[in-house]
Amino acid sequence: xxxxxxxxxxxxxxxxxxxxxxxxxxxxxxxxxxxxxxxxxxxxxxxxxxxxxxxxxxxxxxxxxxxxxxxxxxxxxxxxxxxxxxxxxxxxxxxxxxxxxxxxxxxxxxxxxxxxxxxxxxxxxxxxxxxxxxxxxxxxxxxxxxxxxxxxxxxxxxxxxxxxxxxxxxxxxxxxxxxxxxxxxxxxxxxxxxxxxxxxxxxxxxxxxxxxxxxxxxxxxxxxxxxxxxxxxxxxxxxxxxxxx
Length: 245
Known about the structure:
This protein is an alpha/beta fold. The chain folds into two domains: about 5-125, Enolase-like, N-terminal domain (Enolase-like, domain 1); about 135-245, Alpha-Beta Barrel (TIM Barrel), CATH 3.20.20.120. The protein is about 40% helix and about 25% strand. The chain has eight helices and eight strands; from the N terminus they run βββααααβαβαβαβαβ. Strands 4-5-6-7-8 form a five-stranded parallel beta sheet, with helices on one face. The chain has a three-stranded antiparallel beta sheet with strand order 1-2-3. Residues about 240-245 have low confidence and may be disordered.
């Protein structure tokens, strides 16, 4: 089996509501999505997608995906999509880095492999859990009642874990947000407070110590690993935790 054709499609995906994070530093209303179609000489077709979270959040953007695929196309054509590692190697030799641009092709290859072997991709990768895999909702930053309303909507869809966006220079507002959400959190429900690197060391210390009695978890409260080490040294509650991806 060989890849005979690569087609690339661009689609703007408008969000139902404007999405704020990182203390309002980042706002998204439309996401730039790229869809990739791989065709083979065996008649099997695979689809992949790449939709970066805007252009300013991480080193990835929609036009970069399409430019990367154009650069790598000749290296991928003619390869067996079932041999995913060899396809990935060919892309790496042609274009070092830029993993986000390679992801849609990787997904499309797995799609073809699943169809070729008559198995779900989850089973090809080791097997899916019978109870499913829980996923966390993503809650835009805003007024405490507004954020609680977003969580309520996700609850109705079955979500039991939520990533609530906080951060920014208004530490009093962040403290208010966290206490309001925790006050209304259901038993067994998980709320992670994602700062997206928008706090200074001082702001992180103020907020995290002010809510230390709640034992909540924060993601990316600082910009660098040095920031995280310092923040951890001034946090008063042993149960408080920091996470950096």
